[in-house]
Amino acid sequence: MQTLSHRQLQSLIHVSNVINSSLDIDTIIDSIMVQTVSVIDAAGGGVLFIYDPKQDLLIPKSDSNFKSDILTVRLKPGESMTGLAFTAQKCLIFHNRTEVEKATATLSESNHKLMDQSIPTLPYSSICAPILLKGECIGVITLDSFDPLLHFIPEDINLLTAIAHQAAVALEKANLYHEQEQTVRQLEYLNNTISKQNEMLSQSVDIHNRLAALVLYGEGLDSIISYLYDTTGHTVLLFDDLGELISHTYKNTLSDDELLTIRDKAQESLRTPGTVRSFLEINMNEENQCITILPIGAKASLFGTLIIVSAKKMREIDIAALEHACTVISLELVKDQAIFDAQEKINGELIEGLFSGKMDGTILQKAKQMDFDPLGDYLTVIIRVDEMDNTHKRNSIIRHLVQLANRVFLKNSLNGIAVRNHDQIVVLLTYQQKVSPTYAHHQVKELVAKFRQEIHIKNWGTTVSIGIGRIHSSLLKVTKSLHEAAKCLQFLHSFGRKNQVISYKELGVQRLLLQNSEEELIDFINEFLGPLFEYDQSRKGELLPSLFAYLDYNQNAKEAAEAIHIHTNTLMYRLKRIEDILSTDLSDSQQFLNIHLAVSLYPFLKEKLTQHGS
C-alpha cells in the first residue's frame, strides 16, 4: 500500500468527520456519496449500492450527478463493474472505455436500458470499492469519470478504500443506533439505556476526532497508543507485521513470556479465514484476561495488530472507536514507512556511487552531509539474505534487518550507515579515531556475531550470509572494502555456503578460488594430490586425513598424531608413504607449498573432484 498524500489524508479526515456527524442511516449514505465524489478528482458521478442478502441483489441507495432512473437498477453479484468488485471483494479500476464496455456487457437487458437513461454518456473510466464489514461485503461505492481527460489512477484506490472502511464503520454504528431506536419505541422502560448508548456514540465520534488531530499535528504512534490507554483504561499493545512490539502502554506490566503468548495467539486468530477481529481469554497471574485483537490495514497486507488487554470483554461501541484508531494507526505506519524509504533512497545513492568507484562532487557532498570524514578509516560489511520462510514478507523482513543493523553496528566509536542494496544490506562503518586493522577486524566480528544472534532470537524465518571487507584509509578507498566484502559473498555463493560469515582477511589462500577457474583449480589439486586420492580409494583411506592433520597442526607431528588418535611413529611412517606416492619431499619448501595449497583448496572443491572421478 502506498502512502496517502497530505491532501488525501485531510480529505479522508474530512469525509470521516462528515459521515460520523450523523447517526441516521439515510443521511450517512447520502453523505458518503456526496463527500466521496467531492474529494476524488476524476469522479464525475457515483452510486452507493447496499447488498440485500435476502434478494441476493445490490440495491442503489444514493447517487451523485445521476438521473433518478439509476436507483431502480438491481444488480446481481458479478454483474457489471459494481458486481465484479462485490464478488472480488477488492477495489477495481476500469482504466478506459474499452474496459468499461467489457464489464457493462454483462448487464441484463433491463439494467442496460436503465443505465443508458441515467447517465449522459458511457464512462471513460470507473472505480469500484467494496464496503467490507466483519469479513463480508455489505455494499459497493462506484465512481465514474465522464471527462475523457480525467482518469482514475492507482493512488485513488488508497483513498477510496480508506473511505469505504470508514463507511463500513459508520454504517455499522448507524445500524446499532437504529436498532436501539426501535427498541425504545417498543419498550419504553429501556429509554434510559438508549440515552446512554447515544452518549457512547458521541464519545466514539469524539475519540475519532481526537485521533485525527493527533495525526495532523504529527504526534506519532506513541501518542496515539497513550491516548487509547487514557481513553479505555486498559493495556494497549501495538505489534507490527512481523510481530515486533513497536508501542505499548501497560496498566499492569507483562512479562516477556506473557507478551509472546498474547502475540502468538493473536497472530494465529487473524490467520483464520474471514476473521476481521478476534476475542480471546487468557489466564495471566491466575486471573482471566480478555484479549481484543484488531488488525491494522487490509487482510491481505496487514501492517500490524492492535491488542487491548482488559478484565472484561469490551463493548461493541468501544470496539467501534478502536476501529477508528486502527485506520489512523495504519496511516501513521504508512507515513513512517515512506520516511524510511526516502532515507533509504538517499543512503542507497551514496552506496551505489561508492560501489562504482566514481567519487564525483555529488557523492562527496552526500558523504559530507552524513558526517563522513574523507580521510577517515572505513570498513564495509555486506549482509545477504539467504532464505525466507515468509517470502511474501520479504520487503518487511529486509527493512527490519536494516533497522537491526543500524542498532547493532552503529554505536560506541563507530559511525556509518546500514542501507538496503537489492536483496543485500550494506553496512558502511567509519572509525572516529585511528585503530589497528586487527582491532577493527575483531570488533566487527563481535558485532556480526551479535547481529546473527539477534536474528536467531527474532525468529523471522530467515538466514543471512555475511562478508566483511578490510579497513582502508580515506573515503576514496572505501570502494576497495566494498568489493572485498562482495568477494567474500561471491566465495560463499560459489561453493553453496549459506548462513555463514567470512572476512576477506580470513580468506587467505582461498582468494585463489576467486581468481582462477574451477577447472584450473581442480587440475591443480589433481596434479599434486591425485595419486594420493587413488591410493586411499583402493585401501583404507588413512593417508589423506593424516596429511590434513599434519598441516592443520603446523607440522607438529605429536599434536597431529594425538588429534587423529595414532602413535607419532605411525604418523611419521604415513608421511613417508605420502612422499613416496606423490614423489615429493615435504622438507622441500617449494614442493611443500604446492602440497599445502592443494590441501587448502580441497575442502571447497571436494564434491567437484568426486564428480570428476577423483
From TrEMBL:
<protein>
    <submittedName>
        <fullName>Helix-turn-helix domain-containing protein</fullName>
    </submittedName>
</protein>
<dbReference type="InterPro" id="IPR029016">
    <property type="entry name" value="GAF-like_dom_sf"/>
</dbReference>
<dbReference type="Pfam" id="PF17853">
    <property type="entry name" value="GGDEF_2"/>
</dbReference>
<feature type="domain" description="GAF">
    <location>
        <begin position="24"/>
        <end position="181"/>
    </location>
</feature>
<dbReference type="InterPro" id="IPR003018">
    <property type="entry name" value="GAF"/>
</dbReference>
<comment type="similarity">
    <text>Belongs to the CdaR family.</text>
</comment>
<dbReference type="Pfam" id="PF01590">
    <property type="entry name" value="GAF"/>
</dbReference>
<dbReference type="InterPro" id="IPR041522">
    <property type="entry name" value="CdaR_GGDEF"/>
</dbReference>
<dbReference type="Pfam" id="PF13556">
    <property type="entry name" value="HTH_30"/>
</dbReference>
<dbReference type="InterPro" id="IPR042070">
    <property type="entry name" value="PucR_C-HTH_sf"/>
</dbReference>
<dbReference type="InterPro" id="IPR025736">
    <property type="entry name" value="PucR_C-HTH_dom"/>
</dbReference>
<dbReference type="InterPro" id="IPR051448">
    <property type="entry name" value="CdaR-like_regulators"/>
</dbReference>
